[in-house]
Amino acid sequence: MVRVRRNVIVASGGVLLLAAGYGLAACGGDGGDASDTTAATTLATTPPLETTTGTTTLVTPSVETTTTLATTTTLEQEELTEIRIVVVNGQPKGGIVRKTLRRGDPVVLVVESDVADEVHIHGYDISKDVEVGGTARISFRATVPGRFEVELEGRGVQIADLTVLP
Fold first, then answer.
1. What is the phi-psi region of residue 109: left when phi exceeds 0, alpha when psi lies from -120 to 50, beta otherwise?
2. Would you put residue 11 in left (φ > 0), alpha (ψ -120 to 50) or beta?
3. Alpha-carbon span 120 to 52, nearest angstrom
4. Do 87 and 114 touch, CB atoms closer than 8 A?
5. Residue 142, class by beta-carbon neighbours within 10 Å (0-12 exposed, 13-18 middle, 19+ buried)?
6. What's the CA gap between 47 and 67, in Å, rounded?
7. Within this chain, do residues 152 and 110 fall inside the same structural domain, yes or no?
């Protein structure tokens, strides 16, 4: 009788462990995160341990549980904001380019120019020279909130107005 009860208890415990393992595996996320977690639970029964008490031998199965958590991180590619400006006769074609960004956005400013000058992003204090008929590419992360002028520094001509939201 004692032997049957223990086997039922151990078997019930094994079922609970399997259910818990399944629950952990199901908690891996909805796939919308940048990381996925997978859980696997292995239930292994090792040979029974025998205990002798007086003339009665009790057999108690031994249960070993191993839980493995594996985490895989997949970085979602950030959406890059590209701001294109074409300079004709030292002026921004179509007028000053106005763009609103969110704080933390990765940005690339691309300036094609028919005049040589320095492209300067005020507030970030980033600048790059552009040659006659050349293109200047300035990559940065919009980490500072506020409103910032982009200008052809030598000419003092504003070519863009960037607003970075907090």
1. beta
2. alpha
3. 87
4. yes
5. buried
6. 20
7. yes
Domain final residue, candidates 55, 73, 91: 73
Residues 23, 90 within the same domain: no
Is 17 within 8 Å of 43 (Cβ atoms)? yes
132 DSSP β-pair partners: none
In a 10 Å sphere around its CB, with 0-12 CB exposed, 13-18 middle and 19+ buried, how is residue 161 labelled? middle
CATH at 98: 2.60.40.420
Total count of domains within the chain? 2
User: pLDDT per residue over 106-147, tens digit each?
Assistant: 999 999 999 999 999 999 999 999 999 999 999 999 999 999
My answer on whether 46 and 97 are in the same domain is: no
14-27 CB burial, b ≥16 within 10 A, e <16: beebeeebeebeee
Same domain, 90 and 158: yes
Question: What is the residue range of 148's domain?
Answer: 81-165
pLDDT in tens, 41-71: 334 444 444 444 454 444 444 444 444 444 4
Residues 85 and 158 in one domain: yes
**Total-model pTM:** 0.54
